[in-house]
Amino acid sequence: MDEFKLITSMRDITPFSFVNFGKGYNNQPITWRVLRIEKNHAFLFADNFLAGEGNKLYMSKVFSHSTATAIYGDTSNVWRKSEIYKWLNKDFLRHAFTWSERIAITKTKYLTKKHNSNDYYTDKSKIFLLSLSEINTYKQDMSMLATKPDGFGWWLRDPGRNPDEVLRVMKSGQEWIVNNAHVNELLEIRPAIVLKLSNRILYHSSFKLKKHDK
User: How far apart are CA 180 and CA 202, in angstroms?
Assistant: First the structure.
């Protein structure tokens, strides 16, 4: 498998390649999968769950230090009010990325489904969880759904069946399924970000590329 290499041009980046951007636990690079390139922007999805125990990045009431998992929130399944939304866009954003890297992350507008409704509300943030519709868009590359063999599954941002439930992705036997999880369950976190590829700051940071092995 190829090693990660420095990126010198945004033309190097293609869908389903991998990039290292930002630092997680023990200053290890965070690997992202490129899901889409559009108008000089790259839509990235964390290739694995955010792991770590006991460092300042994860000092939050949402995070379990023993299992590297997090709750969604206290009682509500509303994404923009959730504890995980606040953690991703405050603590995680501040500690995982340098000041210049944060500038390159675009504040993205997206739709989130309302509970027990066919309606959506518009939100805008630098870091977000995927929705069920986004999973369905990119599921042709099924390896993106991977989690630990003994994993807990990972959070989506869509509300679940009941007011205190949210959708999650998990493995059942050999199948990947989406089902409901209580907001206080401990699940893995796999966020998404959008990078402005024309920002020259990227090419002087931790931004590195590895082509996708088909």
Answer: 37
